[in-house]
TrEMBL record:
It comes from the Bacteria. It comes from Streptomyces fodineus. Its cofactor is [3Fe-4S] cluster. Residues 61-81 are annotated as: Disordered. InterPro entries: 3Fe4S_ferredoxin, Fe-S_cluster_ET. This is Ferredoxin. SUPFAM superfamilies: 4Fe-4S ferredoxins. Pfam families: Fer4_13. The keyword Electron transport applies.
């Protein structure tokens, strides 16, 4: 699974780091670091992290809760909050 974070959009809310700490981390108070090739076993946490981003800065290739592979952000999941 491949992750992309638009660091120009990212505002450092750190919701992703809270929900998927094995993939995302804050370096200091404003800089996000992440693993762009997240392990498959992090799929559920990543789906939550993508959906929780308030500025929709995270996209993931191959992330879908039904197991189907697709490209895009999990915007629909954010509506369920």
């Amino acid at each position: 699974m491949r992750l992309v974070v638009d660091l120009n959009k990212c505002q450092g809310y750190a919701q992703c780091a809270f929900l998927a700490p094995d993939v995302f981390a804050m370096h200091g108070e404003e800089s996000l670091i992440y693993n762009p090739h997240a392990p498959e076993e992090q799929r559920e946490r990543l789906a939550r992290a993508v959906a929780a981003c308030p500025v929709q800065a995270i996209t993931a290739d191959g992330l879908d809760s039904t197991g189907e592979r697709h490209t895009g952000s999990a915007q629909g999941a954010s509506d369920a909050r």
